[in-house]
Design a protein that fits this description.
Elements (H helix, E strand, L loop, with lengths): L25 H24 L4 H28 L3 H22 L2 H11 L9 H16 L6 H31 L1 E4 L10 H13 L12 E4 L2 H10 L3 H12 L10 H17 L5 H6 L7 H32 L10 H16 L3 H4 L5 H16 L2 E4 L12 E6 L5 E10 L10 E6 L2 E4 L5 E4 L2 E8 L12 H18 L21 H7 L5 H7 L11 H10 L4 H20 L9 H12 L15 H4 L9 H19 L4 H16 L7 H9 L6 H6 L7
Parallel strand pairs: 5-9
Antiparallel strand pairs: 1-2, 3-4, 4-5, 6-9, 7-8
Length: 701
């Protein structure tokens, strides 16, 4: 289908907010191909006229990059939130062409030489820190993108880049399709015994969406899926051990057989990554990955992970023994031989007894609108900004999507964001993420005036949707997830850097990028913040004090097991990319079993194909970087400790430290190395003690 002269392709507008309602899958191929042709011409012209100055190389290059990012960013965003067969086919048609153009851009010798000449020119000393760091990062990125390669080696490298991009898309689609494919229909009250009201409501709503018009929460039928808002409550609460087993086994074997089998894709990705690293002169892919990260070496990462493993392993073993004893005290036949599908169920029962509450009882106190009020009020208090609804001012891709404005203390707008909160398993990938829609940038108008283009963020969650006329009633975990993603959003939106190359999260080392997000999670437990949002959605009653005390007490419940689980993923990722030989006799699944010996209390089942849905490292940006969650958690815990030291009940002191955090961590973005940013905020290098203390794994000092 071609676009007519009267209706230009909406993907070619190139600036401003994306016109989502106008964008159809049929716009993708023609729009992106036309864009690439225009950008290719621009690149050729730039290569012929490039000058080794900021205006002569960085600014024209930024123009090219931004046009591509705007259009391709929209398509990528829609792949995550409005996935369809037509969109997939269009995306897969043009993705290789996009990758080829990016390779050409990154490997441009004239541009690389201009950056090198700028680095050694007189102008260098007149550039500010952010500009210098952008130039240095551009040089390093070009080198890691193969700018120094020639002939057949360069062709092979580019072929690898193309294939890796395609494999990652396939991997992600397989996980989405496999998650969507499983549906467990339950028809008798006995089959849903133990499920809380919220789970029954959602299961009945899912059944209606599947064509069971008369399904009700009381009488069924009920449909359970592998989507988190359905899957997690089922494992925690279903009294039917056989059905828990069925759902658990379906979850751990996703995308591991038939047409959706990701096993050969995993093997191929690891083989290609190893080859890519070797071409660029690195011993393995992990060393290549760490070249652009904060951690100095694979050994340094392994040292931190091992320190945390030793602090958490014995605790996790003790927690498991305690859980078995608890199940036995309740007369559970399976107590001596707990299986994987029993752990969440019995852990939830133990939590209920230990802290005298269950997570479901909290839901009515956390309706989404109120949680947003609490989140916005602590943000205002700490960082001096106000957030107001701006629905209707931006086109959206789904009716549930909200739009918000952030203003400074004088009422001037400084940023905007979209919020897409609810799970939509048919078209939206699982998990939660923040992405950039528009970057902050200083712009010159045609009359010579300077204006600042304001940043816009996408915040995407997959929480429980509104059911039967109720608002979205959130679990406390969903509240934490929202705060987490908002932390990423704040770094994007409160940046003071005027160059897109280092504004917000751009040019921030990957293992430091989780600092603001994990930092924000702490405020869910901050008394004034919690009570500002925890009010019963029907009565307006505040959360009873006893529940708050229980939440605090339960915060470190099974924290040894939780930390060990994250360390298992981190060690596994690092082992696959630093030490595993994909051409050897061992499979990636053998590696997982080997890593599990020291990082799990219960070994994975023989058929556990978790790797087949490990999208973080096979379809996201976390390859040889999953450790980033723990690396950044050390930073975020230490950053929050600065607020603890100031006094969490002292409003003036909090605002003062908050301003310092905003002016460093949130404002400086990628304009300085993360260690320099951290030291500007904290006055010293980070320490692990606050993380272990917050996790309850060390005696409080």
């Amino acid at each position: 289908m071609t676009t007519t002269a009267t209706k230009p392709n909406p993907l070619l507008i190139g600036e401003g907010l994306p016109p989502f309602p106008e964008i159809e899958p049929q716009h993708v191929v023609s729009g992106i191909q036309q864009l690439l042709a225009e950008l290719d011409t621009q690149l050729t012209e730039l290569e012929q006229t490039v000058q080794p100055t900021w205006e002569g190389v960085v600014e024209p290059l930024t123009e090219i990059e931004e046009r591509l990012t705007w259009s391709w960013g929209i398509v990528s965003h829609l792949m995550g939130v409005k996935n369809s067969q037509d969109l997939r086919e269009a995306y897969e048609t043009v993705q290789p062409e996009v990758v080829r153009f990016i390779n050409k851009l990154n490997q441009s010798k004239p541009i690389y030489e201009a950056f090198k000449a700028l680095r050694h020119s007189e102008e260098w000393n007149r550039l500010d820190d952010a500009q210098k760091r952008i130039v240095e990062s551009s040089l390093q990125d070009a080198e890691l993108s193969g700018v120094g390669l020639e002939g057949e080696t360069k062709e092979r490298f580019n072929a690898i880049q193309l294939e890796l991009a395609d494999l990652s898309t396939q991997f992600s689609n397989h996980v989405l399709d496999a998650t969507k494919a499983f549906k467990l229909k339950l028809t008798t009250p006995e089959e849903v015994a133990g499920l809380p009201q919220s789970a029954l409501n959602l299961a009945a709503q899912t059944a209606r969406q599947e064509g069971e018009e008369n399904a009700t929460a009381e009488k069924g039928p009920w449909v359970i899926t592998l989507d988190f808002p359905s899957f997690v409550p089922f494992l925690k609460h279903s009294q039917r051990r056989d059905l828990r087993e069925k759902v658990y086994r379906a979850f751990i074997t996703r995308a591991s057989s038939g047409e959706l089998d990701n096993q050969p894709i995993i093997q191929r990705i690891l083989t290609l990554r190893k080859e890519k690293a070797h071409i660029l002169g690195f011993e393995n892919y992990a060393r290549l990955s760490l070249a652009r990260k904060m951690a100095p070496s694979v050994e340094a990462v392994e040292k931190l992970l091992e320190e945390l493993r030793q602090a958490s392993y014995d605790a996790a073993v003790a927690e498991h023994e305690e859980l078995k004893a608890f199940a036995k005290s309740k007369g559970a036949a399976e107590a001596d031989d707990l299986k994987h599908w029993d752990i969440q169920y019995w852990a939830e029962r133990q939590r209920e007894e230990k802290f005298a509450f269950n997570a479901e009882e909290l839901r009515p106190y956390f309706p989404l609108p109120q949680v947003l009020n609490g989140l916005f009020s602590i943000t205002q208090h700490l960082f001096g900004v106000t957030i107001t609804a701006a629905d209707g001012e931006a086109p959206v891709w789904h009716e549930d999507v909200r739009y918000f404005r952030i203003q400074d203390h004088d009422g001037n707008p400084i940023a905007h964001f979209y919020l897409d909160p609810f799970s939509r398993p048919a078209e939206k990938r699982g998990g939660a993420w923040m992405d950039e829609c528009i970057n902050r940038r200083k712009m010159k108008a045609s009359n010579g005036d300077e204006t600042t283009r304001l940043p816009v963020a996408y915040l995407t969650c997959n929480q429980t949707p509104p059911v039967d006329g109720q608002p979205s009633l959130m679990t406390f975990e969903e509240v934490e997830t929202l705060f987490h993603e908002f932390g990423h959003g704040l770094q994007h939106m409160l940046t003071q850097v005027d160059y897109p190359g280092a504004a917000g999260i751009n040019n921030v080392e990957w293992d430091a990028v989780e600092l603001p997000s994990q930092f924000m999670e702490n405020w869910c437990y901050h008394r004034p913040t919690l009570f500002s949002m925890a009010k019963h959605y029907e009565t307006g009653e505040p959360l009873p004090e006893e529940y708050y005390q229980k939440l605090l007490a339960a915060r470190t419940y099974r924290s040894g097991s939780m930390m060990l689980r994250q360390l298992h993923f981190s060690f596994l990722d690092l082992e696959l990319h630093a030490h595993y030989d994909p051409d050897g006799n061992e499979t990636a699944f053998d590696v997982r079993d080997r890593v599990a010996e020291t990082t799990t209390v219960m070994r994975p089942l023989p058929e556990d194909a978790f790797l087949c849905s490990f999208g973080h490292i096979f379809a996201g940006g976390y390859a040889a970087g999953y450790y980033s969650y723990k690396w950044a958690e050390v930073l975020s815990a230490d950053a929050f400790a600065a607020f603890e030291e100031a006094g969490l009940d002292d409003d003036m002191a909090l605002a003062k430290v908050g301003k310092q955090f905003r002016d460093t961590v949130l404002a400086l973005g990628g304009s300085l190395h993360p260690m320099s940013v951290f030291k500007e905020f904290r006055g010293r290098e980070p320490q692990t003690e606050p993380l272990l203390r917050h996790s309850g794994l060390t005696p409080a000092t």
